[in-house]
Write a structure and sequence with these properties.
eight-stranded mixed beta sheet, 427 residues
């Protein structure tokens, strides 16, 4: 279908474009920007006056809960949530049931996702069989099946010999290993940031050194193997300083941060609000300030939603017993725009959008995150000024839990276009 998106403010961080232009879509690709192409007849016209047109969002961490956890969420519900949030491409971790450690499971997931005709799904394969941290998976077969990298999800590898072998093998074939730095023993069983608040509330703590100890070990192994590593959901000032030094050293390192940690601190736990029970835990104001500084200076490469839908029964428990996780696909855009708004001009809207479009796409090597003639028409059209209230009944995701319930946020998605098809519209 030929689409004509007219009079929108087109923001494309990849090319630096930020001005009011028309965008023309044909045969699933961007046909032209600014001037109508020859013989173009629009089957549908979208009036984007007063709206922003950007590349579709690219989310580096979205759990879709299939296979195995359909009682928490389904592919249908979460991909529909992605459409409502303007997310057209997403990376999903391998901690499903069964774990994504075999090519057939990956192929099945990709086929099921493709049948939904919504967001593009890029799975991470398990680094070790069953995520048990012992035997390496068949990385070549998993890559051929469609995996874009290899991860342990939330299961750290205890045996550093196994981790070294994994990094060596990945380096040989150019695969990227995705790891969340977390020591297997320090802070094990902790539910909140180690600090005065956790002490007052009587909650077991996860100290910052649980993150930094893991980094020290990992960086030594990276020096020895030359592996490419992506660090997931960094949470601490000390960890970011280590990353800054490692990047200056020249290690093949990238990292992301969860959108919750861009805005919240451990004080947002309040009186044991289980919606703020996250992994990694919300940390101190100093850590949050360090995250904002690292986003501004480029130390942090991308922002992700860390979308982890949790069912009501698992959240309706005392804080320490509640399952960690929060919904995020429908909030990623709004919270990123809020980050730019809160910066009082220090971060432009285009710079903020780069962290959820161009930069994550480049990090994974995906053919998206840009508005370019001849490339796939994956687009998000949103109203940057209209505000909306975050309510459980306003969320499409099967997971209704987020620490932002009750907040009023900017930016409402008006249309999501995937491969030139209007997958969602409220216009």
């Amino acid at each position: 279908m030929n689409l004509h998106i007219k009079n929108g403010r087109v923001i494309d961080p990849a090319s630096g474009l930020d001005e009011v232009k028309d965008v023309f879509v044909s045969a699933g690709k961007i046909a032209a920007i600014g001037h109508v192409p020859a013989d173009f007849v629009a089957a549908q016209i979208i009036d984007a006056s007063g709206l922003v047109v950007t590349p579709g969002l690219v989310d580096l961490s979205a759990r879709l809960r299939e296979p195995g956890f359909e009682y928490k969420a389904t592919l249908e519900s979460e991909l529909q949530a992605a459409m409502r949030g303007g997310v057209t491409s997403l990376v999903c971790p391998p901690d499903t049931d069964p774990v994504l450690d075999e090519a057939g499971l990956v192929e099945m997931l990709k086929q099921r996702a493709k049948m939904q005709h919504k967001a593009n799904v890029y799975p991470l394969g398990a680094l070790t069989v069953g995520l048990h941290g012992q035997n390496l998976t068949e990385m070549a077969a998993l890559t051929e099946a469609g995996c874009v990298g290899f991860s342990q999800a939330e299961e750290p590898i205890v045996d550093t010999n196994v981790l070294q072998r994994a990094l060596s093998y990945a380096a040989t074939f150019g695969y990227t290993v995705w790891l969340r730095p977390q020591d297997a023993f320090v802070g094990k069983g902790g539910v909140a940031h180690s600090g005065p608040l956790a002490s007052r509330l009587g909650l077991s703590g996860v100290p910052v050194m649980a993150e930094t100890i893991a980094m020290h070990t990992l960086f030594e192994l990276m020096r020895a193997t030359g592996a490419k590593v992506h660090l997931c959901r960094i949470s601490s000032a000390a960890g970011l300083e280590l990353i800054r030094q490692a990047k200056k050293e020249g290690l093949a390192l990238t990292c992301d941060v969860g959108i919750h940690h861009v805005h919240l601190t451990d004080t947002d736990i309040g009186y044991f609000d289980s919606n703020a029970r996250l992994t990694p835990p919300l940390r101190s104001q100093r850590d949050r300030d360090a995250i904002l500084a690292a986003l501004a200076d480029g130390t942090i490469d991308a922002i992700c939603s860390d979308h982890t839908p949790v069912d009501d029964d698992e959240k309706a428990l005392p804080f320490a017993e509640a399952s960690a996780g929060a919904t995020g696909l429908e909030l990623l855009l709004s919270l990123t725009v809020k980050w730019a708004d809160d910066s009082r001009g220090a971060i432009s809207l285009a710079q903020a959008m780069a962290k959820i479009t161009r930069d994550p796409a480049a990090l994974v090597g995906l053919p998206c995150g840009q508005i370019k003639v001849g490339e796939a028409a994956d687009l998000c059209v949103f109203d940057p000024t209209t505000r909306w209230a975050v309510r459980a009944d306003a969320l499409v995701s099967q997971g209704k839990h987020t620490p932002f319930l009750g907040y009023e946020l900017p930016a409402v998605v008006k249309a999501t276009i995937v491969h030139g098809r209007l997958a969602y519209s409220s216009l």
